[in-house]
């Protein structure tokens, strides 16, 4: 047994998030065309980061993205017009709802997304690894419990059906 009665070698929710933060440290801020282009497509929070964002009142500005296999879901900043609903392709060209006048509204708030902080023009090819590790963080009981909580909080299923009707 380790400290605080936990079994040694067993990862906790906090140590998983910490290891992601250590593995993918923030990059230096940059406004080059490459780095700004990353900001147009919403990145992903870790489960812990997203929990803080919901507690800060941002649930209504999130959307639900399904994994390609449709085996788990991830909460992310919504495309403009897609707030509080399942992510719809029809809104993907509108960009991240937190990107206002080419600047991230979350920057400096303590609610930034690990993936957004990490990606940088100097880190060519490392973004997909970061994204995959964050996906694994969401593909957990804690991640899916947060998705379910958010769905009840925002009534996302009803909002999505209304958006689809409007698009038809």
Structural notes for this entry:
- The protein has a 3-stranded mixed beta sheet with strand order 2-1-3. Strands 4-5 form a two-stranded antiparallel ribbon.
- The chain contains 7 helices and 5 strands.
- Residues 1-11 have low confidence and may be disordered.
- It has 168 residues and is mostly helical.
- A hairpin with a 6-residue loop joins strand 1 and strand 2.
- It has one domain.
Give the structure's gist in a few sentences.
By secondary structure, this protein is mainly alpha-helical. 42% of the residues lie in helices and 10% in strands. The radius of gyration is 16 Å and the shape is globular.
Low-pLDDT segments? 1-11
What is the number of independent domains? 1
H/E element sequence: HHHEEEEEHHHH
Structure annotation, total helices: 7
Number of strands: 5
Structural class: mainly alpha
Mean pLDDT, rounded to whole units? 86
Topology:
Layout (H helix, E strand, L loop, with lengths): L12 H11 L9 H8 L6 H9 L6 E5 L6 E5 L7 E2 L12 E2 L2 E2 L9 H5 L8 H12 L2 H14 L1 H12 L1
Helix pairs in contact: 1-5
Which properties best describe this structure?
single chain, 42% helix, 168 residues, globular, disordered N terminus
